[in-house]
Specification:
The chain is an alpha+beta fold. Helices cover about 50% and strands about 15% of the residues. It contains 13 helices and 14 strands. The protein has a five-stranded antiparallel sheet with strand order 4-3-7-6-5. The protein has a five-stranded mixed sheet with strand order 9-11-12-14-13, with helices on one face. The radius of gyration is 54 Å and the shape is rod-shaped. The two termini are about 75 Å apart.
Length: about 500
């Protein structure tokens, strides 16, 4: 029972239901007011007509019948006049008022008259014609009701003896229900008004249903957004037209854009959090070995430096320095990758002669074990310019060249090929090294991933170089690709705008 009540209450609490209830309540109230007004106007009109038709009735009776005898009301003549007028119908009630408005004689049955005195102001107004019809006077049969009447003064030798006061309508029109039951026109008007109100009410409900449909769609989208969240795949929202002009549609477009932005931001925060966890894991894993080695060599030197020869001491100290350098380089790369993953990276683009830059980098390459490698850039054209941040471009090319050097054997070849393309220059770094297994190519840009056949150099290889390189290429609005054959070599390529 409570569940059903909750559902009904929830339906009533909807925006459309509230509007519908407000419209229905308004139309019921307006209908009652209009009906009351119609009945009141009908009653007033009927009273006005009735009073106009019988306005001079009292005057005719007062002049045509000898109501006075010796300057006083002749009760026999009065009863005769009352009896004659009752032939017109029982809807007339006759009263004689003295000059002060006191009821002295009447045609009603004994005991029905409840008012001894009638207010003479309306009587005089009607006689003088000073007000618009209908004019209502006191009903002697009631202590509070008022009815239309006809009145005429009764004079004797220019002296006011009293008033003939005739109530028009009597008890036949005492309430509105009688009026409705006896008036066919009023009934037709009533049901016509009801039909009009029903039609207009239904039309308004349909109109507001159409108006509030976008609001219901928007409410549904918000409810779906609230219930589904970000963890359940793509949000299924209504398709809002971005060119719509009405406020609700623009609100829907804005909400859709906001939901999409929030989802992207959430995914970005999630990725950042995952990266943070990975960085913590990498730091704890990658720093543990060189730190342990550094600590072991330093403790050995501290305990035995006086027993070791100068050459042995030098070797231990140099090994400790190498380990500290490796730790420093790893930390720098971790911070560099974390910085590049953020939104606050700014590129300072400028024209760069890429062939000259690569030749300069060839001079800085560190080749271990005395290997001989052939280094070449084709073509050596200084007019090949790209728009890039020279510092970041140098960093990504250095990473690619270091990676190529590390995996080439003695006598190998490293070649950088520059190719003009529409709107830019394609840069390919090719080597004749050991290559990458096919199943591992998709993972080589992941932080700290090392191919199973990767060469472990004595230098500063941390597994972050290619991850940093890919991010630097993305910051230049490009994509890096890789092709490799096991045992034959690898080629990395990307395109920069010129």
């Amino acid at each position: 029972m409570w569940g059903i009540s909750s559902v009904i209450l929830g339906k009533i609490n909807t925006f459309y239901s509230k509007i519908a209830l407000a419209i229905i309540a308004s139309f019921v109230l307006v209908g009652i007011l209009l009906l009351s007004l119609a009945l009141q106007l009908t009653r007033s009109y009927q009273q006005e007509v009735e009073q106009k038709l019988h306005l001079e009735l009292a005057e005719h009776i007062a002049h045509d019948d000898a109501l006075l005898k010796n300057g006083k009301i002749d009760k026999e003549a009065l009863e005769h006049a009352f009896h004659s007028m009752m032939i017109l119908g029982p809807s007339f009630e006759f009263y004689i008022l003295d000059p002060e408005g006191v009821v002295t004689t009447y045609s009603a049955d004994p005991g029905k008259v409840k008012r001894d005195k009638v207010d003479l102001v309306p009587v005089r107004d009607l006689i003088d014609g000073a007000v618009m019809l209908p004019v209502l006077g006191d009903d002697p049969r009631s202590s509070s009701n008022k009815k239309i009447f006809s009145a005429a003064p009764i004079h004797h030798d220019d002296q006011l003896i009293g008033y003939l006061y005739i109530i028009i309508g009597g008890e036949i029109y005492d309430n509105v229900v009688d009026l409705l039951q006896k008036s066919h026109i009023v009934k037709i008007s009533f049901w016509g008004l009801v039909a009009i109100l029903l039609f207009v009410g239904c039309a308004m409900l349909l109109f507001f249903s159409l108006i509030t449909r976008p609001l219901r769609r928007l409410a549904g989208d918000m409810q779906s957004f609230k219930s589904r969240g970000f963890e359940q795949g793509e949000l299924e929202l209504s398709q809002w037209q971005s060119t719509a002009q009405d406020e609700v549609s623009r609100l829907g477009v804005t909400f859709q854009e906001m939901a999409s932005t929030l989802k992207k931001q959430y995914q970005k925060v999630k990725n950042t959090d995952e990266l943070r966890r990975e960085l913590i894991s990498y730091v704890s894993h990658d720093l543990r070995t060189p730190l342990a080695s550094l600590q072991g060599y330093l403790e050995t030197w501290q305990l035995k430096n006086h027993e070791l020869s100068p050459e042995q001491n030098e070797k231990i100290i140099q090994t400790a320095i190498n380990n500290s350098t490796q730790i420093s380089h790893l930390i720098e790369q971790l911070f560099e990758l974390a910085h590049l993953e953020g939104d606050d990276v700014i590129l300072h683009r400028e024209p760069v002669a890429v062939a000259e830059l690569i030749q300069d980098l060839f001079q800085k390459l560190h080749i271990e074990d005395g290997r001989k490698l052939a280094l070449d850039v084709t073509p050596k054209d200084p007019s090949l310019l790209v728009m890039a941040d020279i510092e970041k471009l140098e960093r990504l090319l250095t990473n690619l060249l270091d990676n190529a050097v590390r995996h080439c054997k003695d006598g190998g070849r490293i070649q950088v090929v520059l190719t003009r393309v529409d709107g830019g220059v394609n840069i390919s770094v090719e080597d004749s090294g050991i290559g990458i297994p096919d199943e591992e190519i998709a993972h080589i840009f992941e932080p700290h991933f090392r191919a199973t056949n990767s060469v472990k150099s004595k230098g500063r290889n941390s597994g972050l170089g290619l991850a940093i390189t890919r991010r630097l290429v993305e910051l230049h609005q490009s994509v890096i690709s890789v092709q490799s054959r096991l045992g034959e070599g690898t080629r990395f390529s990307f395109t920069l705008s010129s």
